């Protein structure tokens, strides 16, 4: 099959890339753009490890074709923050010792970032439901919830300043 | 073991510090096997048998081989190393002429793109003659059942050895012609029949726990490449690189020196990534193509053809006198091992018969082959299943006698020094302290009030408690500690760090040597450079590798002080390390810096040897570790749905080297335990095919299913562990199934004996009530 040009925005940068029309957004990000932060844990949208933002909303990138992202803005974990300039969520995850194996973490962080974008002062329930589409097998979620709560306050205070 | 005194309070053990690779993990920079993409990479896919049991009549791969982009297609006929009577899954690289479980690989493809490899699988023509499958383990035990293994295949007990499960007498009374009974064990003491005859209360139940998957988020993955000299490099997602190297060397029939295993970041293992699985076939595809080949299992393949935990069926009969005296215990345990042998049969007997003081017991165990994927360890293998049975039984006995169940457990709990079923004495352990702490918890003490508050618009309310433990794994291991020219320390082991053990090992090195943790760097080396290091399994990383690191750091400290003694013209025993300097005690001006000692060890023409501490201990003393869990629940009387309100884990960790990491282990283990209790099961149809091969249908608990998880750390020091530490990983996965069943019993009066405790089962029990 002939490859097609996919033009979209990835982590604030305009990108043109040749992709097979049948590849998923996840595969295009990982294999064609080298953004391996999003993970494939199931390939069927059940585990959330591949979560990225499409125009600010969390999506399972394994469930959509890359070409469906044409003209849209995609943000991956690589665009959430960087070493030395961590997003408050990333900072709280590190400080509270959330990551164990770490495989689910990029997806959880993107889901959590979407919760924070929608809700200034999320309740524990808001957070639990906000990341309910992300499976984690190591942490029992407890430290995640605490870290997201802490980060929400940091983000809200930062915005108020 | 004596621990060397440090000369002042360094920042080392006992403090909560996050792991140093946290920033890499939260930014997506950490690389797992599937993220590594060398030049010329090929992608592997496996064709798997759709039948649980079938004769392979013929395989025609010619069309697949002709597909552009396909670089190799392998069947059993292409692999001279393949032998019949494969003792393990790893040895059964591809089915030779008989597939023995649905999902068993029969052919392998390497291609330029994953999509081409997929297409090639569709072009391979396999003719099967479907045979009758042994699907139910109790049927499979009977004479005349369809045979699973080739005649003459030996039982695999290496899993039991890896977990240092206690040795036990093999039974010699295996039923004749029961071809699928691959191992048996039998322990007895005292007169069981007499014990039951003299009992006032006798309770008998059969407990069932289905096969469950370890559920690590990263599927099995491996990247293999051979160089022109015949050296194989494997980038593996493994819990033990040296174990992987040995297994692959054995399967391929090559020297271990020709294989380098690089342990890549492991996205969870929980016992499922101890044994080799897809490494041999990937290495063979790489050899056939002369290119690097990467194989990543799909989630469906993981669920259909991974290495889950065995199904465990336990018939348990216990008798007590009216005054509560324990009289007799009788048990028959069946472990369904799938298509290859390899369960830890002894663990079940130990916990059934040893946790409480049964004067008479008779415990039989059988490992049974079926036409299903063969099993492996899953965090405290067989312990949650066994504790589900014995603790449910203790709860029922206490209720029948009308006594407090926590007190009943405490009264009969074995103490250190008392004999286990195998006549070995219980080692130092904190089960009594853990149980007492749990019994004092406000949620347990308020259980009557909680139960009374049920109904009247609420569901039925109940509280459950359970106690379980793990004997503690052992394995020889090694570590080195170097002093760098700037006075910092470099620790090297081969230990795979999944949960954050490296930071704890660095803390141990810091305290044992006498510098702050920020001066210590720890590295996990590959099998070419690291000292031999055991598995990250069995709750033994800190307990064993921690000792190696501690002793290596003590050795490095001794060497450092000896060098300083020469420089300072002082006796070693008068020296201490303070703030990065070796000084004469009481004379802080007389000293040399660690940096100057380190520098001289790497100076041209220097006569000072470099400081290199090493240790490579082997171990004999286990450190049992216990956890108690308390569940406060509410049952919807119409739907049977259980809402978990509170969940508490109390655990003896000996000494919390890094409390932050310890809590993480306790919380994660608790949720796996709750998943086994409430939602998880691999479900098979009558033909042996998995009916729930996705994470939508294989239901793991999510953040929305759970309350906050309370953790309470108890510290009863172990005599042999580093600074008194015990293993931490396994205990928290053990008690929850019994705790939830006991809570349901408290709330509804119904006793459920089959996991998972689903709304459907609970609702049916409520109707039958």
Give a brief outline of the structure:
The complex is a heterodimer of chains A (161) and B (769). Chain A has 161 residues and is of the alpha+beta class.
Description:
The complex is a heterodimer of chains A (161) and B (769). Chain A has five helices and five strands, in the order ββαβββαααα. Chain A is α+β, with helices and mostly antiparallel strands and 161 residues long. Chain A has two domains: 4-79, Ubiquitin-like (UB roll), CATH 3.10.20.30; 88-160, DNA polymerase, domain 1. In chain A, strands 2-1-5-3-4 form a five-stranded mixed beta sheet, with helices on both faces. In chain A, a hairpin with a 2-residue loop joins strand 3 and strand 4. In chain A, helix 2 packs antiparallel against helix 5 (142-160). The model of chain A has no long low-confidence stretch (mean pLDDT 96). In chain B, the strands form six sheets. A seven-stranded mixed beta sheet of chain B has the order 3-5-1-12-9-10-11, with helices on both faces. In chain B, strands 7-15-14-13-8 form a five-stranded mixed beta sheet. In chain B, strands 16-24-25-26 form a four-stranded mixed beta sheet, with helices on both faces. Among the domains of chain B are: 22-30 and 475-615, Aldehyde oxidase/xanthine dehydrogenase, molybdopterin binding domain (Aldehyde Oxidoreductase, domain 4), CATH 3.30.365; 33-131 and 219-266 and 273-305, Alpha-Beta Complex (Aldehyde Oxidoreductase, domain 3); 428-470 and 622-769, Aldehyde oxidase/xanthine dehydrogenase, molybdopterin binding domain (Aldehyde Oxidoreductase, domain 4). In chain B, helix 10 (345-354) packs parallel to helix 11 (383-401), helix 12 runs antiparallel to helix 13 (431-439) and helix 16 (501-513) runs parallel beside helix 17 (541-568). Helices cover 28% and strands 23% of the residues of chain B. Chain B is globular. Chain B has 21 helices and 26 strands. In chain B, strand 25 (642-652), helix 19 (659-678) and strand 26 (709-714) form a beta-alpha-beta unit. Chain B is α+β, with helices and mostly antiparallel strands and 769 residues long. The chains are: A alpha+beta (161), B alpha+beta (769). At the A-B interface, helix 2, helix 3, helix 4 and helix 5 of A face helix 1 and helix 19 of B.
């Amino acid at each position: 099959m002939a490859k097609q040009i996919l033009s979209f925005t990835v982590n604030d940068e305009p990108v043109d890339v040749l992709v097979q029309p049948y590849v998923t957004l996840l595969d295009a990000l990982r294999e064609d753009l080298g953004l391996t932060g999003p993970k494939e844990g199931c390939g069927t949208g059940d585990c959330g490890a591949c979560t990225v933002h499409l125009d600010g909303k969390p999506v399972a990138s394994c469930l959509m074709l890359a070409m469906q992202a044409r003209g849209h803005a995609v943000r991956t974990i690589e665009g959430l923050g960087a070493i030395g300039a961590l997003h408050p969520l990333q900072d709280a995850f590190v400080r509270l010792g959330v990551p164990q194996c770490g495989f689910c973490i990029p997806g959880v962080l993107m889901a959590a970032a979407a919760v924070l974008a929608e809700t200034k002062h999320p309740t524990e329930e808001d957070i639990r439901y906000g990341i309910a589409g992300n499976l984690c097998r190591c942490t029992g979620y407890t430290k995640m919830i605490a870290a997201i709560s802490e980060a929400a306050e940091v983000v809200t205070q930062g915005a108020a300043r | 073991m004596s621990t060397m005194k440090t000369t002042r309070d360094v920042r080392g053990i006992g403090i909560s510090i996050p792991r140093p690779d946290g920033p890499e993990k939260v930014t997506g920079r950490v690389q797992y096997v599937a993220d590594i993409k060398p030049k010329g990479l090929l992608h592997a896919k496996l064709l798997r048998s759709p039948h649980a049991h079938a004769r392979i009549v013929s395989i025609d791969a010619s069309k697949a081989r002709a597909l552009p982009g396909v670089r190799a297609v392998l069947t059993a006929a292409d692999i001279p190393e393949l032998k019949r009577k494969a003792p393990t899954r790893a040895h059964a690289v591809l089915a030779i002429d008989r597939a023995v479980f649905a999902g068993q690989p029969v052919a392998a493809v390497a291609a330029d793109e994953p999509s081409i490899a997929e297409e090639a699988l569709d072009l391979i023509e396999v003719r099967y003659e479907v045979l009758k499958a042994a699907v139910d383990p109790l049927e499979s035990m009977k004479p005349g059942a369809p045979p699973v293994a080739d005649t003459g295949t030996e039982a695999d007990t290496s899993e039991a050895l890896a977990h240092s499960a206690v040795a036990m007498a093999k039974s010699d009374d295996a039923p004749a012609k029961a071809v699928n009974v691959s191992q048996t064990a039998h322990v007895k003491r005292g007169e069981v029949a007499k014990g039951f005859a003299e009992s006032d209360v006798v309770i008998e139940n059969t407990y069932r726990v289905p096969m469950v998957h370890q559920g690590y988020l990263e599927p099995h993955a491996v990247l293999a490449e051979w160089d022109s000299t015949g050296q194989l490099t494997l980038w593996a997602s493994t819990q033990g690189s040296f174990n992987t190297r040995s297994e692959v060397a054995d399967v391929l029939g090559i020297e271990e020196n020709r294989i380098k295993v690089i342990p890549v970041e492991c996205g969870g293992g929980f016992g499922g990534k101890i044994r080799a699985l897809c490494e041999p076939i990937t290495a063979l595809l790489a050899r056939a193509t002369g290119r690097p080949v990467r194989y990543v299992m799909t989630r469906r393949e993981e669920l259909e053809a991974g290495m889950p935990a065995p199904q465990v069926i336990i018939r348990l009969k216990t008798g007590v006198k009216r005054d509560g005296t324990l009289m007799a215990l009788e048990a028959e345990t069946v472990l369904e091992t799938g298509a290859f042998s390899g369960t830890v049969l002894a663990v079940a007997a130990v916990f059934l018969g040893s946790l409480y003081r049964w004067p008479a017991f008779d415990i039989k165990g059988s490992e049974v082959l079926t036409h299903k994927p063969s099993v492996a360890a899953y965090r405290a293998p067989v312990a949650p299943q066994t504790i589900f049975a014995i603790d449910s039984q203790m709860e029922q006995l206490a209720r029948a006698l009308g006594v407090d169940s926590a007190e009943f457990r405490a009264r009969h709990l074995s103490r250190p020094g008392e004999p286990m079923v195998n006549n070995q004495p219980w080692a130092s352990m904190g089960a009594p302290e853990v149980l007492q702490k749990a019994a004092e918890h406000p949620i347990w003490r308020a259980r009557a009030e909680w139960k009374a508050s049920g109904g009247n618009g609420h569901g039925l309310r109940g509280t459950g408690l359970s106690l379980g433990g793990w004997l503690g794994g052992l394995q020889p291991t090694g570590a080195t500690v170097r002093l760098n020219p700037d006075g910092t320390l470099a620790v090297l082991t081969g230990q795979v760090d999944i949960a954050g053990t490296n930071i704890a090992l660095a803390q141990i090195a810091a305290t044992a040597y006498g510098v702050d943790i920020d001066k210590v760097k720890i590295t996990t080396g590959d099998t070419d450079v690291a000292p031999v290091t055991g598995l990250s399994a069995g709750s033994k990383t800190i307990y064993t590798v921690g000792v190696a690191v501690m002793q290596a750091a003590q050795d490095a400290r001794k060497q450092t002080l000896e060098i300083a003694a020469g420089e300072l013209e002082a006796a070693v025993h008068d020296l201490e390390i303070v703030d990065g300097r070796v000084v004469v005690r009481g004379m802080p001006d007389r000293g040399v810096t660690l940096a100057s000692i380190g520098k001289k060890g790497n100076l041209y023409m220097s006569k000072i040897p470099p400081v290199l501490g090493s240790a490579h201990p082997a171990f004999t003393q286990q450190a049992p570790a216990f956890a108690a869990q308390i569940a406060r629940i509410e049952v919807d009387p119409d739907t049977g749905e259980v809402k978990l309100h509170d969940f508490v884990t109390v655990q003896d960790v000996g000494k919390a080297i890094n409390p932050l990491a310890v809590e993480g282990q306790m919380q994660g283990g608790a949720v796996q335990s709750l998943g086994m209790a409430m939602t998880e099961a691999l479900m098979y149809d009558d033909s042996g095919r998995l009916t729930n091969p996705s994470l939508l249908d294989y239901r793991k608990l999510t953040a929305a299913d759970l309350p906050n998880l309370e953790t309470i750390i108890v510290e009863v020091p172990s005599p042999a562990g580093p600074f008194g530490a015990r293993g931490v990983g396994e205990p928290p996965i053990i008690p929850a199934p019994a705790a939830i069943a006991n809570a349901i019993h408290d709330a509804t009066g119904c006793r459920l004996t089959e996991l998972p405790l689903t709304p459907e089962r609970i609702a049916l029990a409520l109707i039958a009530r």
